[in-house]
Amino acid sequence: MPELLKAADLFCERDERILFADLSFAVDQGEILHIQGANGAGKTTLLRRLVGLSWVVEGNVTWHAPVADGDALDGNRFWYLAHRPAVTLLQTPLENLAFAMALHNQVLAPEALWQALSTVGLRGYEDVPAHSLSAGQQRRVSLARLYLDLPEVRLWLLDEPFTALDASAVNQLEQRIVSFAEQGGTVIMTSHHGLHHAAVRPLHIGAPL
Amino acid sequence: MIAILRTTLTREMTLAFRRRADLLNPLFFFVVVVSLFPIGVTLDLAKLALMAPGILWVSALLASLLSLDLMFRNDFDDGTLEQMLLAAVPPQLLVLCKIISHWLVTGLPLTVLSPVLSVMLALPAKAVPVLMLSLLLGTLSLSLIGSVGAALTVGLRKGGLLLTILIMPILVPVLIFGTSTVQAMATDQPWQGYLALLGAFTAGAFALTPWLTVAALNVTVGD
Amino acid sequence: MWQIFVRWFHKCSSPKWFYQMSKPWSFWLGWAAFVLIGVALVWGLAFSPVERVQGNSYRIIFIHVPSAFLSEAIYMTIAIAGAVGLIWRIKLAFYVAKACIPIGMTMAFLALATGAIWGKPTWGDWWVWDMRITSMLILFLLYLGLWALHNAMERPESGDRAAAILALVGVVNIPIIKYSVNLVTTLHQPATLKFTEKAPMHISMLVPLLLSILGFYLAFLAWMFIRARLEILKRERKALWAQKEIEQLGGL
């Protein structure tokens, strides 16, 4: 499978401690890269560098087609789900999902949004303000976009996506990630939760656990 | 693209209305500050009329400043700001939507309220339309320029206080142009020039600030 | 040809080169400044003739004018250095900009203070809201904002970029401030020294003033070099050359 990401000589220092140095890796299309490490090892920092939000990590990061726009990422081609679910609490799940679509330059039919919310188990909660949902439900709101049919999106960058999810939701997300990879999508995720599948490649940061 | 901007603008306005308390704060502040001046300074209407343009303008600017910090704060706190910076839509347009909605929710109501308050300060009636026009442009300038300051300080503790210090020097020309316009009108002097300057300043800010604000947001988010 | 330029550009934007290059310069410039300012002040304070209208109080001009000039020149320097740093990502530009901020702030404060001291016997008031003074006050507030922003950010790199953005917003604004404050009638005298006209001052007052201005500029350069060197050591402390230098200076 063609190469999607090349990272070379990554170096990260925080508070006078070196988190990682001389880190180099490549990711091919269809792979699931699972970044592992202890708390504070720099997983989120690394992911944010890959996405282009943070420049604390020094080194070279090159993205290739089809997700690239030059060297960096093309906004149409990926989803980035951060540790905070990016759910606006004063809005309903439906509004949140619609706004996420708008940011992605997509206007979808309301039925598609309802369907996605129903898939993640939020049927009946579509019009409830997000602040009255539990933490797990709020995370599901942000995960709902992964269940939409958007053929342009070929890359997912997920930061601790399993946080606060119950066992059935965890299973569902695992299956979704695997099926996305089988269709040729690439997933780069950080998680303390182990994901077992042939396509998963671990990348360990920091001292061994 | 238009649909996206409409969605974003609708979202901003909806959120503003759901935070009604935040909406009314600047307006209350405006009324209170303007009311305090006659009580604290002078009850003589002739003297108040002289000071009216300045008092109205300063109070309107300060009231607008109050809600400036909120422009990005909520989205920064829940992570939506990052998503905006990573979006497929140019972030400058999203920022412009935020600025416009801030102005619609703060500057515009202040402008609408100003004729009522101008009566309290004995501003000559003929100066009121010019006052409203100048405030309309001035509060828009404040929202535009203030967005750069808000973007720089949203990630900081006590960011609100620093915001005021940072933005204050830049607001001086706006204040001077605005009050000169109204004063000129009130004293039957040519006022169009000052208003034109204010308009030019606002137009310039409109063109430049979205880029500066996005650069500032990138710095804040990457900190 | 282009290769030569590119190599020169890379050399000049290296903090290590700047560190080493500036050492002798700051030494000699510093002493030259000391001499110039000393001569200018002694001449101006003791030997220049008494002014017809203001008497002896005009003598503060030898500090007031240079500090006013310098505060504005330094702000332009900070803005340009910030722009260079943002556009071409040259760290050295950020270090220089950061080093200039306290110097500019001091100059602005000095201009305001000496102006007030001068204003009292001349105009009767410590403070007057006039064009020049208001602009200088705003400039001082801009410096204050830059410094506050640097210190407020978590990482120094973020502080560099944030301050550079703020400096750019301010610099676009400075001509506007000057123009807009012009709308108010001025009590402060208009510019006495213009490049294009013959100076209206007598030569016995003009020469010490020019010497003083030159001395202040050299002092700024020397002081900026010293501050920038310190900033370079702080930021580049992981580099080998920097560690050797720190050890040589006596360790951390």
Automatic annotation (TrEMBL), chain A:
Pfam family, one: ABC_tran
GO molecular function annotation: ATP binding; ATP hydrolysis activity; transmembrane transporter activity
Cited InterPro entries: AAA+_ATPase (IPR003593), ABC_transporter-like_ATP-bd (IPR003439), ABC_transporter-like_CS (IPR017871), ABC_transptr_haem_export_CcmA (IPR005895), P-loop_NTPase (IPR027417)
Keywords: ATP-binding, Cytochrome c-type biogenesis, Membrane, Nucleotide-binding, Translocase, Transport
A biological process from GO: cytochrome complex assembly
Domain ABC transporter stretches: 5-207
Domain of life according to the entry: Bacteria
Name of the molecule in the record: ABC transporter involved in cytochrome c biogenesis, ATPase component CcmA
Underlying gene: ccmA
